[in-house]
Amino acid sequence: MKMTLTAIRLSVVLMLLCGLIYPLVTTGVAGALFPKQAGGSLIEVNGKFVGSELIAQDFQSPELFHPRASNAKFDPTATAGSNMAVGYPEYVKAMKEQIDALRKDNPNLTDIPADLVTISGSGFDPDLSPEAAKAQVPRISKETGISEQELNELVDAKTTSRQLGIFGEPRVNVTEINMELLKQVKQ
């Protein structure tokens, strides 16, 4: 009986320590040191939250940069990759459909960056390679009247380099660049 009471007390102490105190302390420290990230890395425009730097949004307007395709259809409650192998006939069919749709929207496109047609593994990848963003510049220029040079400069300005110079790849956050593009279009 003595061992049972000791086990129960130890369990209660560990539940309080690991299940309540530790999460509250780490959440408090994260909020104090990294308030933007702890709050969801939200993007604010004119006092309104329009999205998060961490989650892609489905921009379909020809005037805006389009994100990677999403198997989850950009529904934040349904994260999902396709799990289709490259040689799978349905994958080949899906890639052909993606390429056809991309060429329809961007008729002058010759070299297609892979991230414009492949589906994001999580369904919410907010980033594109700079090449994929620049591949959309002629379409956006035609639709908005903003010169291709200005749009390419915008892509360069919004390109984030590798973390610590070695991790990841250079990338452009589609939501952020579209918010900046909308500011320019409205002016």
TrEMBL record:
Assembly and binders: The system is composed of three essential subunits: KdpA, KdpB and KdpC.
Chain ranges passing through the membrane: none
Family, per entry: Belongs to the KdpC family.
Compartment(s): Cell membrane
Originating organism: Paenibacillus lignilyticus
UniProt keyword list: ATP-binding, Cell membrane, Ion transport, Membrane, Nucleotide-binding, Potassium, Potassium transport, Transmembrane, Transmembrane helix, Transport
Source domain of life: Bacteria
Pfam families in the cross-refs: KdpC (PF02669)
Membrane protein topology class: Single-pass membrane protein
Protein name: Potassium-transporting ATPase KdpC subunit
InterPro entries membership: KdpC
UniProt cross-references to HAMAP family, sorted A to Z: KdpC (MF_00276)
Lineage: Bacteria, Bacillati, Bacillota, Bacilli, Bacillales
Function description: Part of the high-affinity ATP-driven potassium transport (or Kdp) system, which catalyzes the hydrolysis of ATP coupled with the electrogenic transport of potassium into the cytoplasm. This subunit acts as a catalytic chaperone that increases the ATP-binding affinity of the ATP-hydrolyzing subunit KdpB by the formation of a transient KdpB/KdpC/ATP ternary complex.
